[in-house]
Amino acid sequence: MKTKGAILWGVGEEWSVEEIELGDPREGEVQVQLAASGLCHSDEHLVTGGTPVAFYPVIGGHEGSGVVTKVGPGVTGLQEGDHVVTAFIPACGQCPPCSKGMQNLCDLGANLLAGTAISDGSYRVQAQGKDVIPMCLLGTFSPYITVHQASVVKIEPDIPLEIAALVGCGVTTGWGSATRVADVRPGENVVVMGAGGVGMNAVQGAAAAGAKRVMVIEPVARKREWAMDLGATHVFESAEEATEKVNELTWGRMADKTIITVGDIQGEDVQTALSLTGKGGRAVVTGMGNAANTDVKLSLFELTLLQKDLQGAIFGGLAPRAAIPELLGLYQEGQLKLDELATTKYSLEDINQGYQDMRDGKNIRGMVVYTDADR
Ligand SMILES: [Zn+2]
Ligand SMILES: [Zn+2]
C-alpha cells in the first residue's frame, strides 16, 4: 500500500515526510494502523550518526500504538481490531534469553539496526524505489507499519490508544531502570541524572519503589519543575551542585542508586554517577551514547574498594510482554502518570519542529498523533 513516512536520507539531514510503499503482512506479520508515535531521543541518534545503521534511508520511530488492520499467515494470538503497543526489542518468548527471563535481550533483536524483516530478511518499506530500514524493525513515523508479531504487544481496548504509545519505550525504560535494574528499595537515596522522557519515569519508578529521596540533576528549569510533579524530592541544576547537596543530605553516605538517563551519554557521566553513588551502591547506565565512543575514565580504586556496581540496562531490564500491560494497568489505577508526559502533540509534517523542541528542552515527550488526514 502507499502511505507516508518520515524518512532520513543521511546523517545530518532533516526528516523528510514523503510517500512510502509498505508491504502487506507476510508469515508471522501484522499490519497496524498507528494512533501515535513518541519522539524519542534514540531516533535523534540516527540524525547525528551516533547510532550506526546498515545504510540510509531509514524510517524513524520506535514508540507506537495502534490497531491491527491486517494479519498475515502463521500469526497466533493477534487478530484484526486488536489494540497493540510496539516493542522496540522484539520479544519471541522462546529463544535462550527469552526463556531465561530476559525478553529485553531477545535474539530476534539481532538485526535491529540492519532493518531486515524477521519473517524473511526482506525490507518491508520502500521510498523513491529504494529499500528503507525501519528503526528498531518498526518505523512508527508512519500512520501504518507492517511488523513481526514479536514486535507488538496486545493491550486492553479500553486504554486510550494515543497515550499507550509511551510505554513502548521511554516510560518502560525509565521505570524499569529504577524498579528492576537499580532495584530501588524503600528508604533508599536515589539520584536520576537527566529528566527527559526516560529520566522522568525513572523518577516515577524510584518514587513508587519507596525511595526516601529522589534527587534529579537536570539543567533545564522547566524539566526540574516537571520532575518535582512526578515524584522528585530534590532537583539540582548541575552535577557539581548535586554532589555537594547529596553529600550534605545523606551525611556523606551518598546515593544508594544512581541512574544515568541523559539523552546523549558521555564517558564523564559514568564517573560522575559512580562518585554520586555510595559504598556498595549501584550506578545504572540507561542513556545512549555514540556507538563509536569508547572513552570512559573511571576510578578503579573507587570501584573496587567501595564495592560499587556499574550496570548497563536496555528496556529497563523488563520483559515487554509483561511490563507493557502491567504499566498500563498502573496508569489505569492512577498510580503511573502518562498524560502529563505527552507535553506537545505534533502532526507528522511537523516532526522536525518536534525534534527541535526536544533539542531545546521544551518537552518531556513530544508525540506525533495520526489523524484521518494522514491516512
Ligand atoms: Zn526510545
Ligand atoms: Zn526471544
Automatic annotation (TrEMBL):
Keywords: Metal-binding, NAD, Oxidoreductase, Zinc
Highest taxon of the lineage: Bacteria
Residue ranges constituting the Enoyl reductase (ER) domain according to the UniProt record: 10-369
Cited CDD domains: Zn_ADH_class_III
Listed GO CC annotations: cytosol
Transmembrane among keywords: no
Protein name: S-(Hydroxymethyl)glutathione dehydrogenase/alcohol dehydrogenase
Source species of the chain: Geodermatophilus tzadiensis
